[in-house]
């Protein structure tokens, strides 16, 4: 009776640990093993397994449709880990690129601002009104400043490439020099329209005191080229007037058609028998506002 109780105590201990064999006795008195013993890894073995799993040579290839030698649960963990590593790597690379681009833009902006102020200070040695440190708007009355800002906003919508602030400074300087608001507006508009790179009315081409202008108009007539060196010759017209234009073969110009609207930037000017004309050179840019992109 006591041996039977002892045997029951041993069995209960085995069940408590869950790691040994559960044995039974058949009708002939032979011991029968009910299931295979469960083996548990030691701490050292578990540590080594983690080291091996993180070694580059020991990481399974997650690019395959199925990873051989692992269960579905293990495969999901491996692929999830690979995806997370790729995401972290992509974010790090993108952040580094954006950081470099942002720093480059900041540096370029600072240099551009510095160069602009340096140029304005050199120009101020000739004309004090161009100094960045001299803002004539500060010397106007409240009413004058309001009128100047209103007219500057209107002119900024009419003149390409000029900001409202730049125009208001010029208007304010004209008012300080004694002009009333209407006269200042007309004078400043004339000056800015004739500035380099600004498209001007064709009837003002002869008023520009430099050898290069930009105009926009419609080609109203084309003539036969009088010389093999001439690509095209004709008349271009806008609301203010018209003038003769010539394009040279060596400049490799774009071909225009009668009735077509064209913008000619950086054309050279010349005079013949008291009349001004323009010529398309290798430095000239020709744009066609009404053309489709594929046609250009």
From TrEMBL:
SUPFAM superfamilies: Nucleic acid-binding proteins (SSF50249). InterPro entries: NA-bd_OB-fold. Residues 73-100 form a coiled coil. Keywords: Coiled coil. Gene3D superfamilies: Nucleic acid-binding proteins. It comes from Halarchaeum acidiphilum MH1-52-1. Residues 1-29 are annotated as: Disordered. This is DNA-binding protein. Residues 1-10 have a biased composition (Polar residues). It comes from the Archaea.
């Amino acid at each position: 009776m006591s041996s039977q109780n002892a045997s029951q105590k041993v069995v209960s201990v085995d069940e408590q640990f869950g790691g040994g064999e559960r044995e039974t006795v058949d009708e002939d008195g032979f011991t029968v093993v009910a299931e295979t013993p469960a083996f548990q890894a030691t701490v050292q073995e578990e540590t080594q397994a983690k080291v091996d799993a993180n070694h580059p040579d020991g990481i399974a290839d997650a690019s395959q449709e199925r990873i051989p030698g692992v269960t579905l649960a293990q495969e999901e963990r491996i692929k999830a880990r690979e995806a997370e590593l790729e995401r972290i790597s992509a974010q790090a690379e993108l952040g580094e690129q954006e950081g470099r681009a942002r720093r480059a833009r900041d540096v370029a902006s600072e240099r551009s601002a510095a160069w602009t102020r340096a140029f304005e200070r050199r120009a101020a040695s000739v004309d004090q009104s161009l100094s960045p440190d001299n803002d004539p708007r500060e010397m106007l009355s409240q009413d004058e400043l309001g009128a100047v800002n209103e007219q500057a906003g209107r002119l900024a919508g009419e003149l390409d490439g000029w900001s409202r602030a730049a125009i208001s400074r010029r208007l304010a300087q004209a008012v300080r020099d004694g002009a009333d608001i209407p006269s200042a507006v007309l004078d400043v508009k004339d000056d800015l329209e004739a500035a380099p790179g600004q498209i001007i009315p064709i009837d003002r081409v002869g008023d520009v005191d430099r050898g290069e202008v930009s105009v926009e108009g419609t080609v109203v007539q084309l003539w036969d080229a009088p010389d093999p060196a001439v690509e095209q010759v004709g008349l271009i017209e806008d609301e203010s007037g018209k003038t003769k234009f010539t394009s040279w073969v060596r400049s490799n110009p774009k071909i225009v058609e009668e009735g077509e609207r064209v913008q000619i930037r950086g054309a050279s000017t010349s005079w013949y028998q008291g009349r001004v004309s323009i010529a398309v050179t290798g430095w000239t840019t020709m744009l066609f506002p009404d053309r489709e992109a594929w046609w250009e």
